[in-house]
């Protein structure tokens, strides 16, 4: 896979994960109780996802794709409440 193709696939994976996280948790109405929990969720996705996929799959493109899907999902899952009007966001 060429570097440009891999870059495109990784960007698509990140955006797909973000959209899935946003849609799923918005549909379920699940939101983080406070900013500290949000930070833990984001760190788990951004650091834990790549660490786990790298350990399980090794340094391969599929590992990077799955890691970015996880990171995007956690970002989308935690960012969706920000689409609501200011008065309905309790902890921001």
SSE layout:
Elements: H1 3-28, H2 35-57, H3 61-79
Helix pairs in contact: 1-3, 2-3
Separation of the first and last Cα atoms = 42 Å
How would you spell out the order of helices and strands? HHH
Give a quick account of the main beta sheet: strands, pairing sense, barrel closure. none
Structural class: mainly alpha
| Number of separate helices | 3
Looking at how many chains there are and whether they match, the oligomeric state comes to single chain
**Radius of gyration over alpha carbons?**
15 Å
What's the pLDDT, averaged over the residues?
Answer: 86
Shape: globular
Q: Helix amount, in percent?
A: over 70%
Q: Catalogue the unreliable spans.
A: none
**Proportion of β residues?**
under 5%
Kindly state the number of beta strands: 0
Using brief descriptors, characterize the structure shown.
3 helices, 92 residues, 74% helix, mainly alpha
What's this model, at a glance?
The protein has three helices and no strands.
């Amino acid at each position: 896979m060429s570097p440009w193709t891999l870059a495109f696939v990784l960007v698509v994976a990140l955006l797909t994960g973000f959209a899935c996280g946003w849609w799923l948790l918005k549909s379920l109405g699940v939101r983080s109780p406070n900013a500290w929990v949000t930070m833990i969720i984001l760190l788990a996705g951004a650091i834990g996802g790549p660490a786990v996929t790298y350990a399980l799959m090794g340094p391969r493109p599929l590992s990077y794709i799955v890691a970015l899907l996880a990171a995007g999902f956690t970002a989308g899952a935690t960012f969706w409440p920000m689409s609501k009007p200011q008065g309905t966001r309790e902890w921001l």
